[in-house]
Amino acid sequence: MRDMRLQAFVPLGLLALGALAALGVSLGVGSASIPLDRLWAIALGEGDGLARTMVLELRLPRALSAFAVGGLLAVAGALMQVLLRNPLADPYVLGISGGAAMGALGAMMLGLGGMLASTSAFGGALFSTLLVFGLAHGRGGWAPTRLLLTGIVVASGWGAMITLMLAMTPAERLPGMLYWLMGDLSYAREPGLPLALLALTCIGLLPLGRSLNVLARGPRQAAALGVDARLLEWGIYAIASLLTAVAVATAGSIGFVGLVVPHMLRLVLGNDQRIALPACALAGGTLLLLADTLARTVIAPEQLPVGVITALLGVPTFLFLLYRSGP
């Protein structure tokens, strides 16, 4: 047990330090740079009013939202990979994010926002979950391959529906919806819910770490060891849907975080979910935080969609990881 705690403390401690460093970079870098000593003074309640306003009211909520969304997507991806026992699984491949995007875009078309858009996103994600599970149900239950292929088809269908919705959208609303669809944290000013959900998920899943490790070996092994595999599978899918819905409602569609981060950490830390899930939360949050910092600064004062940055970083990284992992 002591070795287990030491084994978990070192990588998680390093990832936590990396997250703090990324947060400092995000708060200090921008169209107007703020040096580290001034950031420290602001943290202590000092500093001039303009810098305090810029950091506390503009950059800090966006940075915390980026960290929370990245962590939510990475944990959701890790859970989907455990469920399907496939390193290529993530909420976007399985159509969860497409359903969430459909719900959120529908709310936007009706002029709704805030909690109503978030609720619509969760409803879309939940509907997509039930649809994929229902269509993938064969005579012998839900085989991982059947579930993955069904999710890919459903995700393609959501993509077509989203394109149709955008074609029917009034011209004055179209630019904002397109930018949001590519991943946009410009209006993410309320990080409380995503951060709380991320923390509660990581804490709540810790007692299930052993069961998740067993489930990753297959439902038969899980049943032989006394784990209710079917109930756990439904729980994993429901949690992943909720995490994805909140992430999509907060920042739009941001790809590759839920795919690359769990795969990368599995190669480094192994398959113990008691370590992997909190590590995914920290690493995913750090990755999206740095990506959003690049999106804000690379062509400043203009901004890029953060989804563009994650795609540019994620594609070569994932191809490299696949090459390193062997056949």
What would you note in describing this structure?
By secondary structure, the protein is an all-alpha fold. The chain has one domain (2-325): Orthogonal Bundle (ABC transporter involved in vitamin B12 uptake, BtuC). Helix content is 76%, strand content 0%. It is built from 14 helices and no strands. Helix 13 crosses helix 14 (306-325). It is globular. The two termini are 34 Å apart. The mean pLDDT is 82. It is found in: Cell membrane.
- Residue stretches low in confidence (pLDDT < 50, at least 5 long) are none
- What amount of the residues lies in strands? under 5%
Sheet having the most strands: none
How many structural domains are formed by the residues? 1
The CATH first-level class comes to Mainly Alpha
- Under the CATH scheme, which architecture would be assigned? Orthogonal Bundle
Name the structural class.
Answer: mainly alpha
N-to-C SSE string, H for helix and E for strand: HHHHHHHHHHHHHH
Share of helix, binned: over 70%
Shape: globular
Q: What value does the Rg take, in angstroms?
A: 20 Å
Mean pLDDT: 82
CATH topology, by name, is ABC transporter involved in vitamin B12 uptake, BtuC
Q: Termini, distance in Å?
A: 34 Å
The number of helical runs is 14
Number of strands: 0
CATH homologous superfamily, by name? ABC transporter involved in vitamin B12 uptake, BtuC
Organism: Halomonas cibimaris
Membrane topology: Multi-pass membrane protein
Protein name: Iron ABC transporter permease
Family: Belongs to the binding-protein-dependent transport system permease family. FecCD subfamily.
